[in-house]
Design a protein that fits this description.
2 domains; 11 helices; alpha+beta
Length: 429
């Protein structure tokens, strides 16, 4: 059956729905994620697609072509916007070495690309130069370290069975495949895993109900297992029963382990023997057309064949879009021949399908298949939560958790972090 996604990849617009009012608690089935994790950040907005790529070689080649160009050609390749031109005065990205002089004078080597999450489950590369990114969200870069987890709340699509929230250790750009941007919620407000991004008093209230073992990581696991979308925002039911909480946290930890994909000492996603996908025929330079044969459980990428590919992996969707299909289509575009309209840096791309993409594809298939296998347990948990009494807004207000202070919705001040400002100036934030 030919693979066509249910929705097209959207742009990186900055318009998102405003968070619900502090302490709203309007949904009777549970509080909003926006009240439990009050500090959230909008998606990154690069302003120019050529600063991201599935491979690093293309990014380096684009940089070299840009800095070697002169005059009008360099201006055209840069693709200026209202937010960024070659003459914009811009500070360095927090925690990243890099030049801060006007890009019009840049002639140095390419900065080392960094791994980022480009939308759900798509690990790509980014040129970490603030002069090239319209809205880089420096507050996210300040807290991105080995101890951080980012929960990404996906844009809501009515009747979509996909997960409303995913998690990563990589810096997420928050891109939504359906063009409905969500929010990025760091688990910690400060570097080093300090100060959980939870409503003040929430941990104490949950420990009083469920026991002293409740931690910020446990809350994140519960959110992964129990969160559900609603028109008012992502809802996170909280059970009255400690055993139900422990059940959901256990399920959430399995979801977390899979989505970390080997980070923080976790095992990489791996299906049991006999179910693991293998390359039955190598993917050639042209990975199109993309076709999934449900009967044979084979994914065809041009002349290439990957099998077995479980239907759960192929049908796994976020915001109404098949994750696996979109991932493959992006790589096909990234190694396609330049067309007549591709005259900018976007035309600098890989000359064919890369071997590293095959390894990444096999892992992604395993990850999505394993997540799909856990879906029935999530549905059973949702049914149990709907049938049982839970912790409502009144109890959270009585515990002092609601309403959430406005200060908790803003990023924490970082007083000991020296950052380079425009043209080499320094400031303490």
């Amino acid at each position: 059956m030919p693979g066509k996604a249910a929705g097209a990849a959207g742009g990186e617009g900055d318009t998102v729905a405003a968070p619900a009012a502090a302490g709203s608690g309007t949904d009777p089935s549970g509080p909003l994620l926006d009240d439990l994790m009050p500090w959230s950040v909008r998606p990154l907005r690069t302003g120019r697609a050529w600063v991201t790529s599935p491979d690093t070689a293309s990014l380096r080649a684009r940089w070299e072509r840009l800095v070697r160009a002169d005059g009008e050609e360099r201006e055209r390749l840069f693709a200026p916007t209202r937010a960024r031109t070659q003459h914009s005065a811009v500070a360095a990205l927090p925690g990243r070495p890099g030049a801060t002089g006007r890009f019009a004078r840049e002639s140095g080597p390419c900065p080392e690309p960094v791994r980022v999450l480009h939308g759900p489950f798509d690990e790509q590369w980014l040129l970490p130069d603030h002069r090239l990114i319209d809205v880089a969200r420096p507050e996210l870069w300040r807290v991105a370290d080995a101890g951080q987890l980012f929960l990404v709340e996906h844009g809501r699509v009515p009747h979509d069975p996909g997960p409303p929230v995913s998690v990563t250790t990589l810096l997420p750009d928050g891109h939504s495949p359906a063009g409905r941007p969500g929010r990025v919620r760091p688990l910690h407000r400060r570097p080093g895993g300090l100060e959980p991004n939870l409503a003040p008093g929430l941990l104490s209230a949950l420990r009083a109900r469920y026991g002293d073992g409740v931690s910020a990581d446990a809350v994140a696991a519960w959110i992964l297992a129990a969160a559900r979308p609603s028109p008012a925002g992502c809802v996170v039911p909280l059970p009255a029963d400690a055993a139900r909480w422990a059940e959901g946290v256990g399920l959430g930890r399995e979801l977390l382990r899979l989505q970390l994909r080997g980070a923080r000492g976790a095992e990489r996603p791996r299906l049991p023997g006999g179910q693991r996908p293998y390359v039955r025929a190598a993917v050639g330079p042209d990975p199109t057309p993309l076709v999934y044969d449900a009967g044979e459980r084979v994914l065809h990428l041009g002349a290439g064949r990957i099998a077995p590919v479980p239907a759960g992996a192929w049908e796994f969707r976020v915001s109404g879009v098949r994750v696996l299909e979109l991932w493959c289509e992006r790589r096909a575009a990234a190694c396609g021949a330049a067309g007549a309209g591709d005259a900018g840096l976007d035309a600098v791309r890989a000359r064919g399908w890369l071997q590293e993409w095959t390894s990444e594809l096999l892992e992604l298939i395993s990850l999505l298949a394993l997540l799909a296998e856990l879906r029935p347990r999530q549905e059973a948990l949702a049914g149990a939560l709907a049938a049982e009494p839970g912790i409502g807004a009144d109890e959270l207000r009585a515990a002092g958790v609601l309403p959430v202070p406005e200060a908790a919705r803003r990023p924490a001040s970082v007083l000991d972090h020296r950052e380079e400002g425009p043209d080499g100036q320094f400031a303490l934030l």
